[in-house]
Amino acid sequence: MSARTEVPRREYPGAVLTVLGLGSNRGDSIYGDPPNILRDAITALRGLLEDLREASVFQSEPLHVTDQSRFFNTAVSGFYLGEALKLLDSIHKIEASFGRDRSRERRWGERTLDIDILLFGDQIISLPPLLEIPHPRLRERCFALLPLLELLPGALDPLTGISYQSILDGLPDQGIYYPAP
Q1: Which pLDDT does position 2 carry in this prediction?
Q2: What angle do CA 116, 144, 87 make, to 5 degrees?
Q3: pLDDT per residue over 26-72, tens digit each?
Q4: Taking a C-beta distance cutoff of 8 angstroms, is the pair 125, 133 a contact?
Q5: Distance of CA 60 to the CA centre of its chain
Q6: Quick one: which of 16, 20, 36 has its CA closest to 114?
Q7: What contacts 104, CB < 8 A, 6 or more positions away?
Q8: In 3-state terms, what secondary structure has residue 83?
Q9: CB atoms < 10 A from the CB of 42, how many?
Q10: Which helix (H) or strand (E) holds 60?
Q11: Pair type for strands 50-54 and 16-24
């Protein structure tokens, strides 16, 4: 069962079932701590996605750049009426409203808020470096697959047709603390 063919709660003609991954590991006195940042970001995303559903929030050890705090991660799914590039633009504005400045951060480093488009229906979009769907590193990230599967347990990778559950089962332990305390 793919993301597009999951049973929706309601019908949204022309809308695409979309899954977004959210992460945060740096808060401050202006934007709050990471769990509150995620909560507030989800509130902002309700203006973009119809019938928004939330996965649990959990903590994960950082990958690649390990000299930073654990991340708080979650995902949301909902129906988006529009093009993926327009959604990406809206997501970047939400990230910036929480203090994210892509020009000043290190790759895979600390951030107040990161929102990735994990799935956009069954679509495969390749516009590197701007946008790739499914997210190009989704299949190697437990912190993205766990909440995605909580929302869409039967989801298949549109590129391979393999279930994301099978992909997750083949990954090594990545230090997931689920759900977050």
Answers
A1: 46
A2: 20
A3: 876 456 677 889 999 999 999 999 999 999 998 888 877 777 788 89
A4: yes
A5: 14
A6: 20
A7: none
A8: coil
A9: 19
A10: strand 58-60
A11: unpaired
Confidence of residue 164 (pLDDT cuts 50, 70, 90): very high
CA dihedral 76, 82, 83, 86 (to 10 degrees): -80
- The one-letter code for the residue type at 162 is I
User: What are the structure tokens assigned to 128, written together?
Assistant: 């590197």
The region, left, alpha or beta by phi > 0 then psi within -120 to 50, assigned to residue 86 is alpha
Type of residue found at 98: F
CB atoms within 10 A of CB 79: 21
3-state DSSP call for residue 165? Answer: helix
Confirm if 50 and 123 have CB atoms less than 8 A apart.
no
The one-letter amino acid code at 38 reads: L
**Encoded tokens for 73:** 């991660």
Q: Where are the beta strands (DSSP E) in the chain?
A: 16-24, 50-54, 58-60, 71-80, 114-120, 125-127, 131-133, 176-177
Distance CA 153, CA 104 (A): 36
What is the rounded distance in angstroms from the CA atom of residue 115 to the CA atom of residue 113?
7
Q: Token digits for 51?
A: 């019938």
What token pair was written down for 158?
A: 């549109």
Q: Encode pLDDT of 142-160 as tens digits.
A: 999 999 999 999 999 999 9
Q: pTM value?
A: 0.88
